[in-house]
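Table 4 source record.
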Amino acid sequence: MTDDGARPGSLPDRSFTPLEERLDAWAHRRMAALAVAAGPWRRGLLEFAVFTAKQAWACLFGAAMLVLLVLSRLLYPEDALLVRSDALVIAAVAVQVAMLVLRLEGGRELWVIVLFHVVGTVMEVFKTHVGSWAYEADGLLRIGGVPLYSGFMYAAVGSYMVRVFRLFELRFTRYPPIWATALVAAAIYANFFTHHYLPDIRWLLVAAVVLLYARCAMSFRNHRTGPRRRMPILLSFVGVAFFLWIAENVGTWAGAWIYPHQSAQWQLVPLTKFVAWLLLMMISVVLVTLVHRPEAPEPEAPERGAPVSEGGSAALRPPRPADPRADGAGAG
């Protein structure tokens, strides 16, 4: 054991919750057990299973919100003394408190949730005022036409992103300057308001995002002693925005809010909203970088017991015996 109580060769991370520690330790044990005996297909399937499990855990808060929305649509009695929107606010707060008390969530997620809640609610108040979408008109726990549970839906995005940073040890190659990303994010947030009165510049903003992040690659680990995987960061943005669009369809079906084209009967949210979610992702990314500063990947060390190829990197090859002629001893 080392001085901090970690096993030799482990990578302790005190920001992991206890359940995340167990999940990561299980993944490491299973991968180590299959490293020699199993073929590449079994190892690949286990890698995918670990990746899926950690992604699902990162979505915990958002998944809890969707479950509450769906259950309230299907089961909540219409004649209840407490209206549905107020019950959802109380339930969302209860979920948040339970996650903190049970140590299923860390302090960083809490600060991000508060920040996203404020940013999202401000935009919601404006958007409902101009008629972009609407909520149920009843309830006391609301600001204007916006029930307070709406801010938790934005906060779920922030919670997911902070958890992903921690669970997968995200690192970035050629990450753009923070000031430039903050400038674009501020322009995106402003455009959500100004496009109602000025020309909509969302496609210019999409182009700015592509230019900023085109050269950036994201690397991650499935478990803390595993190899790093790489992918273009723009691909991850598109993937997350797509799942947010799916979640939005679930939310509108559950009656959490409706768009004007859904007032007569529910219809699929148009794919044009996917672009809006992609741009909202940029605001989310910049807010999360206030908590997790983007870092470059560390040099990869060879796995314990792994052979070093003759053509491998010089940093990974064992040192060669000293040549006595190198210092001139054999000259003459």
